[in-house]
Amino acid sequence: MSSTTTYDVHAIRSEFPILERKVKGKPLVYLDNAATSQKPKQVIEAIAHYYSHYNANIHRGLHTLADEATAAFEASRVAVQHFIQAKHHEEIIFTKGTTESINLIANAWGNTFLQAGDEIIISSLEHHANIVPWQMIAEKKGAQIKVIPIDANGVIDLDAFKKLLSNKTKMVSIVHASNALGVINPVNEIIKLAHQQGALVMIDGAQSAVHLDINVQELDCDFFAFSGHKIYGPTGIGILYGKKDLLESIPPYQGGGEMIKEVTFEKTTYNELPFKFEAGTPNIADAIALKHAIDFINSIGKASIRMHEETLLNYANDQLKQIPGLHIKGDVENKVSVVSFVIDGIHPQDLAVLLDNQGIAVRTGNHCAQPLMQCLGIVGTTRVSFAAYNTKEEIDILIVALNKSIKMLK
Question: Is the pLDDT of residue 274 over 80?
Fold first, then answer.
């Protein structure tokens, strides 16, 4: 299906076997895509095909299976390069996910370049994965973390950010789109301002990579991280993009096989990019399948998917706002397809249980963003998030289920 054809959501849904199952006797309504997306047949089949036909370790073998596995693995790297429009394929590092990618930079870069008194800036919107690694390295190196405040809608205060910036700022690590609220940050301006002060910028693209057009060269970010499982790919495979010169200046994160050129008991010399950061046998099957997830997105077209998701988002917003006592958090125009809300007098976890009993999967709680919830003065939210395969009919089912649940809980 090309981006110029009519969007056929039912044809798309037919590519996802899990959408045919029932939960508690009801057809599954899966609205937890910000946590992880479901996988199309071609991704599932790619994993099975690798293990059934050319399972082998990569890069070092001289036999046919090793050659085939290596070629497929490296084809995925090139697919990711084009997906985020990186300049060089060796700027793409495979990791376990966004969390490991951020930890890699916090440790490998931070241990090398951070000094006592240096400052790291993050925002109040961050996932724990973009808070804790920086706290750990800051404590170790004697650096300080500063936090960009937000308003009641989750929009960051750019004027406050400008005031936080100084010649002490060495890293700005910021989420592109909030996993808890869906709010999109003005990363272009953030990157430009940070670079004017000589600071580097890490972008957490876990929620943005599947929804937004990513061009890391135009963004001019120094590092960009995202996860395969949020872009219709497998779990356990993630991506770290870094500018080539920066990656070359950073020592390896882990030691072992593959990341070396030569080892003696006296000295080890490290491999070239990207292998310097990919110690040991990697997650070969899931890396290979990642290309098929990217192919799936490209076959529909990001623009078409985004238009479909925006239609769902607007429809859901309109329907949810008709429910008395329901308050949407992060109710702004510039956001990805996430709706996060609270209902007066109802705990999100109680609501989730009742919705699950009706076959509806949503996410509730603090969404690994406890500081954000504290800023908003709430314990958590109910989060509904959409993907290429969701429908208006599913939103109608959600609204009926919500009204039914609210009557039971009040």
Answer: yes
Domain covering 9-39+301-409, topology: Aspartate Aminotransferase, domain 1 (3.90.1150)
Helix 41-53, helix 284-300: angle, nearest 10: 150
Report the distance separating Cα 69 and Cα 8, nearest Å.
Answer: 34
* Tokens linked to 24: 């508690």
Rounded-to-integer distance, Cα 351 and Cα 104, Å: 37
- The answer to whether residue 375 is catalytic is no
- Residues 217-222: contacts with CB under 8 Å, at least 24 apart: 217/85, 217/86, 217/87, 218/85, 219/187, 219/188, 219/191, 220/191, 220/192, 220/195, 221/187, 221/191, 222/246
Task: Convert 170-201 into a string of H (helix), E (strand) and C (coil).
Answer: EEEEEECECCCCCEECCHHHHHHHHHHCCCEE
Angstrom distance (rounded) from CA 243 to CA 221: 8
DSSP-derived pairing of the beta strands 338-343 and 381-385? antiparallel
> What's the pLDDT tens digit per position in 22-52?
999 999 999 999 999 999 999 999 999 999 9
DSSP secondary structure, 334-367, as one string: SB-SEEEEEETTB-HHHHHHHHHTTTEE-EEE-T
What are the distances in angstroms from CA 49 to CA 41, 59, 240, 284? 12, 19, 26, 12
What does the DSSP 8-state code read for residue 252? P
CA-CA distances (angstroms) from residue 291 to 80, 86, 107, 205, 325?
7, 16, 28, 18, 44
Q: How do the residues of the chain divide into helix, strand and coil, expressed in percent and rounded to 5?
A: 45, 20, 40
Query: pLDDT at residue 264 above 80?
Result: no
Question: What's the CATH number for 45-298?
Answer: 3.40.640.10
Domain-by-domain residue ranges, the chain? Answer: 9-39+301-409, 45-298
Query: Of the residues 1, 19, 65, 368, which is catalytic?
Result: 368
Cis status of the peptide bond prior to 274, with omega within 30 of 0: yes
Give the closest residue to 177 by CA, choosing from 200, 160, 154.
Answer: 154
Q: Provide the angle, in degrees to the nearest 10, between the axes of the packed helices 284-300 and 302-320.
A: 80
